[in-house]
Amino acid sequence: MSRLHVTVTEDCAGTGQCVLVAPAVFGLDDDGLSTVIGPVDTLESAASARLAADRCPMGAIRIEE
Amino acid sequence: MTARTSIPAFEERLSDPTFWADPHPTYDLLRREAPVYWSEGRGHWLVTEFDLAETVLTEPTDFSSVGFENRHIARLPEDTRVRAARVAVHFETPQLVSSDPPDHTRIRRAFGSHFLPRKVASLDTLIRAVAAQLLQSVAGRQFDVVADLAEPLPVHVISEVVGIPREFRDRIPPVTLDQREFFGSPSIGPEHARRFTSSLEEWRGLLTEWMDARRRTPEDDVLTRAAQMVDEGRVTLDEAIATLLHLVIAGNGTTTALIGNAMYHVLRHPEQARKISANPELIPNAIEETLRYETPLPRDRRIATRDLTLGDAEIQAGDLVMSVLAAANRDPNHFPDPHRFDAARSFRESHHFAFGRGIHLCLGAPVARLEAAIAIEALFGHFTDLRLVEGYEPDWHAITTHRGLTKLPVVTDRR
Q1: Residue numbers in A near B109 (CB within 8 A)
Q2: Cα(B41)–Cα(B185) distance, rounded to whole angstroms?
Q3: Theoretical Cys-Cys bridge with B298: which of B81, B184, B326, B385, CB 3.0 to 4.6 Å?
Q4: Is the pLDDT at B2 greater than 70, yes or no?
Q5: Residue B328: its pLDDT value, please?
């Protein structure tokens, strides 16, 4: 599959929900905010990134094909 | 497939007055026999299995957060209901816990800035100072962890975060109690509805007044942010008021329960208490275990938006569905030996549900965690030999919405 373009917007509040469901894709930076740490280029990572976007309390994860 | 079929033996256990002393044998039974169970007596489904509770919490299009409060009010006896008309209006306004996307996302973004990790970390010094001050004024060899520390500390902290003036802070516990009893007490009457109505009215007036004051003199607090969000048209005045009051109320009672529950379970296990007292870096994990083991907010409510199947239960559109967080947190498929309090338990495989899951994850969770950890550290720092009063039997608040101790008397010989 082609690589998905995943970004965390400035709405991130560091709730860590994305790290729980997609630990290979998201991590927390020094400010405790979410950041993309891994590529989203497999079906599994794409599914977990989408789940993270669904569950983000701030709606702060953007996914583009 | 099971539609709404209540089982008399389960109903009896759920309504037994001794249920609250230890609800877990009943929750275990439900999880094994009917993990999605319709209780006729309670008037809602109880979801006790971890994976199913997670589904309910993370699929807001199927399980809505709107309308619970007014459903509750509609079920009250008429003489109480008529006096709760103003309460109903207040809870019709979307705020954090009673809204779905896109309202929820909009409101959460408007208020989220004061709960960012860096912002919360900056509260550390304040929380330590308040905890130290409270413990210094404790007199005698015996004191009550709940009344002397667990109640006043969160009231002080949430007041600083929101910007509640000092002279009004003693009004926070009464409105918190009013709301908790209104939604959680099995027997509320017209007098109660009248009291809650008048405290809501009073708070709405005060919050409006304080937001006006912040327009003239901005501060670094949530009231200032709220006024700004209203002026920019991002939230309505009613939404701002409802959300502010929610933050004040949710920001103290639950953390009070967490601090009391944590100290109780740590002291109940003297070996773990000794280890924690000597190694304060173990405290944050002990707080996580308390959140799992004695979940301060034991359930979260949703309303089904369509007919659907959950587990093997057929839920109808409009049914009230309770995720029993306290039961999911003791699901043996996710937490080995779930009925053991283990302050060193690893949460790497499964994380507990105490703050919810998904979009409604508790906004104040980082503040609650920080306050509870500092409270426990301060207790052990001030009194190295703390222990429970001999013969102490826990007295839990008899309400469905919270799990917390009415008092926690402890003794020390070194002071």
Answers
A1: 11, 58-59
A2: 14
A3: B326
A4: no
A5: 98
Q: Among B117-121, B298-302, B395-399, B403-407, which is the least confidently predicted range?
A: B395-399
Max Cα-Cα span within chain A: 33
- Provide, as residue numbers in chain A, all residues whose Cβ is less than 8 Å from the Cβ of B363: 13, 57
A58/B112 Cβ within 8 A? yes
Instruction: Name the residue of chain A whose CA is nearest to B361's CA.
Output: A57
Closest chain A C-alpha to B108 CA, distance in angstroms: 6
Q: What is the mean pLDDT of residues B176-186?
A: 88
What global pTM score does this model have? 0.95
Tell me if A17 and B361 make a contact (CB, 8 A cut-off).
Answer: yes
The residue to which tokens 């256990």 are assigned? B13
SS3 letters across B4-31: CCCCHHHHHHHHCHHHHCCCHHHHHHHH
How many helices and strands, by DSSP H and E, does chain A display?
Answer: 2, 4
Cis peptide bond N-terminal to B284, omega within 30: no
Helix or strand run (H / E) with residue B411 = strand B409-411
With CB atoms and an 8 Å threshold, state whether A57 touches B108: yes
pLDDT at B415: 60
B365–A15 C-beta distance less than 8 A? yes
